Amino acid sequence: MAKLSRRDFLKGVAASGTVVGAQMTGGLLSRLPVAAAQDMVEVTYATPGGAVEDAAWEPVWEAFNEENDTIQANYLAVGGGYGPQYLQLLQAQLAAGTGPDVFFVMDGFTVGFAARGVLVPIDSYVDANPDVDLEDNYPGHIAALRWQDQLWGLPRDGAPYATWFNADIYDEAGIDYPHGLTWDEYLEQAIALTERDDRGRARVIGGGRGAWIDWIWQAGGDVLNAEGTECLMGEEEAIEGLRFAQSLVIEHECAPSASDLADQNEGALFTSGRMASFTIARGFLGAVCNTPFRFDAALPPAGAVRVGRTNVGPTVMSSDTADRDAAWELLKFINSSRGQTLKISSGYAYPSRRSVVQEDWYVNFTCGNAIGTGLNTVFNDIMENGWARTWPQHPRWPEISTVINSELDALYSGDKSAEDVGTEIAAQVNAILAAE
Amino acid sequence: MGGFLRINDIFQPKRLSFWESLNAWIFVLPWILGFFLFTGGPIFASLVISFTHWDIVNPPQWAGLANYETMLSDPLFFQSLKVTTMYALVAVPLQIVVGLFVAILLNTKIRLIGLYRTLFYLPAVLPIVSVAVMWRWILSRDWGLINWFLSLFGVYGPGWLSEPEWALPALILMSLWGVGAGMLIYLAGLQGIPTDLYEAAKVDGAGPWAQFLYVTLPMISPVILFQLVVGLIAAFQVFAQPFIMTQGGPQNATLFYLLHLFRNAFEFFRMGYASALSWVLFMYIAILTMLIFRFSAAWVFYEGEIRNE
Fold first, then answer.
1. A209, A316, A363, B104: which sits with the fewest CB atoms below 10 Å from its CB?
2. Do A408 and A304 belong together in one domain?
């Protein structure tokens, strides 16, 4: 009896593989005529998703599909949460040619996608559609989506940061609620509110660390120059911002230490009643509405410049989409007042459209133990007065951000001075920029 | 100096018939197909990609050895290599010692021994994400179990995960959580040692320590070798713990090699560089493994082995 040789066996494997491959390809191709036969264009929108978000989007798709006879909007919850994992999953789909037509990109990553040719610039669509009404969007949100004189998407929402405070802690300490404090006033309040035991364990922390970039902007500094060719973190203004941020944690111990944050993040410290105030976007309502203490939102502290951070919810069009016109219709609807109202009125995001903020459902919103109307007015005040900026836009922002975060560890642990941290960040980031 | 005679040198395997060969190939076919499709292909692809600049969505551009050269000027490459090597050098021997110690304790005939063995093995099957979250609390500076225990002796424990000098030791300590898996293998090895060897040792006047040193250790040395090699490979593939617990911080003190690789691949989209990193890691592990095997002849004893003196 002849022995089965290795070569014969591998031939058999190859033949089997061909058959399997043909089956798979055939299966794929057999799907295509179905859509064509229905004469309906399908466009898919992707976002991280989740139980709450999925439910908030539902009315948007229902309305869009009802109003469009020839376009069917599909919702794709990619998963991974609002972090790097979402981007990884999204990139894998785009690389495989199975990416969505329209999708959400996390703030700070839009330019990276645009630079790699993944997105379609939408200027021509906006010009041809006056009903888009760009003016109704906050200028800061639109500016964040421009790069190299082209518009790469429209916001689905925005997220300016305001100060959330625990009114019970302030009342107990007999301190006025915070509203647009100066740095000195903020520091004084935070010190007065902080209670630590002899081992440094916090019962109450006076305030959050604040977004590091806010302190730098408020001191008149910035991360990159306007051209994105040089890092400015070694400049005196940026160092002053870093110095103040460090003093809150190290010198005065009135903001969370590294050990405090190893146990709970700032949101958890606040909702568990262990932190008097901290800054974050309106989306925090989802967590704060269920707390047992009284709360409200207020204007954040300011230094030499009154400015703070705002996120944007970029909605962009894939350059691989089969039908750009249909994809544009969906993108436009998501950005529209109607689309944003449908989505946000059942959730906690902040609209990117001024007109939506004037609607009754927004103006009269209240929940849980909210004590005032700050949560309905402060975000609009921040945006209308131009007190918010978006993250710096650069194709290599993820790498730059990693360098900064690592050095901030040394800043907040007190291992390095603000001068050393600023200088080191500038050196490392400039090396990244030089390698472009 | 003598070489080794192995079983195969004495007993030549018989040639298989066609049908026997066919049956054998059919049984291994699913694995071979899976290997070529899902492992072999990506391995080969990553080698090619390591010589390119590739951002996933655009076509790769040939870069020659540029990615490998970049490593030489990447401080985080050396930092991640240092962190991972230190982890491997401390955690692997520690896991072997603790695993073996627990196995010896559980290799006795006492009541409820099955329950004890199950309890010690249980942590090894728990999902790493839940375990990491739980350990974050155990290692908490202010409210953690470890620092509470230390406080009973008047010692204020450190911020295990927030202080650069303690973060890596904390992850090494946490790695002992999974020694149950190794314990099980040691236990199997211990139970395979013929009892007459111990009886002979006792007759020769050997006490418990001498029995352990001259009977137990040599007899389970192949198991220790296996655990050493597998443990070393696993140590160089640590990812989930730092990813969940420290994100490589503070100040890159827990920037493990795979975390650095992952960031380059999926956050910076430098697939070519990440692939080059993976091949350097492969070579590094391969060299260490070869060294271990090279020197294993001095301390590993195989039961079926005949040594020519």
1. A363
2. yes
Any idea what DSSP says for residue A77? E
Q: Closest Cα of chain A to B130: distance in Å?
A: 15
Q: Determine contact, residues A137/A151, Cβ cutoff 8 Å.
A: no
Q: A226 and A100, same structural domain? A: no
- Locate A307 and state its tokens: 């400015």
CATH assignment, B50-307:
1.10.3720.10
Token code pair at residue B147: 């620092």
- ipTM greater than 0.85, yes or no? no
H-type alpha helices, A299-396: 324-335, 337-344, 354-357, 360-363, 374-384
Same domain flag for A304 and A273: yes
The length of chain B, given as a count of residues? 309
- Single-letter amino acid code for the residue at A336: S
Q: Is residue A8 domain-resident?
A: no
* Two structure tokens written together for B302: 């195989």
Mutation for testing the B interface, residue in A9, A109, A264 having most B CBs under 10 Å? A9
CA distances from B65 to A421, B43, B68, B78, B144 (A): 33, 18, 5, 18, 48
Torsions phi, psi of A277, nearest 5? -160, 160
Based on the fold, state whether residues A291 and A419 are members of the same structural domain: yes
Chain A segment 392-421 residues within 8 A of B by beta carbon are: 396, 398-399, 402, 405-406, 409-410, 413, 415
The count of structural domains within chain A is 2
Q: Per the CB < 8 Å rule, is A112 touching B269?
A: yes
**Looking at residue A219, which CATH number applies to its domain?**
3.40.190.10
Per CB-CB distance under 8 Å, the chain B contacts of A405 are: 249
CA B47 to chain centre: 24
* Bridge partners (DSSP) listed for residue A388: A308
- The answer to the question of residue A99 being in a domain is yes
Residue by residue, DSSP assigns A31-52 as THHHHHHHT-EEEEEEE---HH
Q: What is the pLDDT along chain B (309 residues), one digit of tens a residue?
A: 445 555 555 556 667 788 888 999 999 999 999 999 999 999 999 999 999 999 888 889 999 999 999 999 999 999 999 999 999 999 999 999 999 999 999 998 888 998 999 999 999 889 988 999 899 989 998 889 999 999 999 998 999 999 999 999 999 999 999 899 999 999 999 999 999 999 999 999 999 999 999 999 999 999 999 999 999 999 999 999 999 899 998 999 999 999 999 999 988 889 999 999 999 999 999 999 999 999 998 888 887 666 655
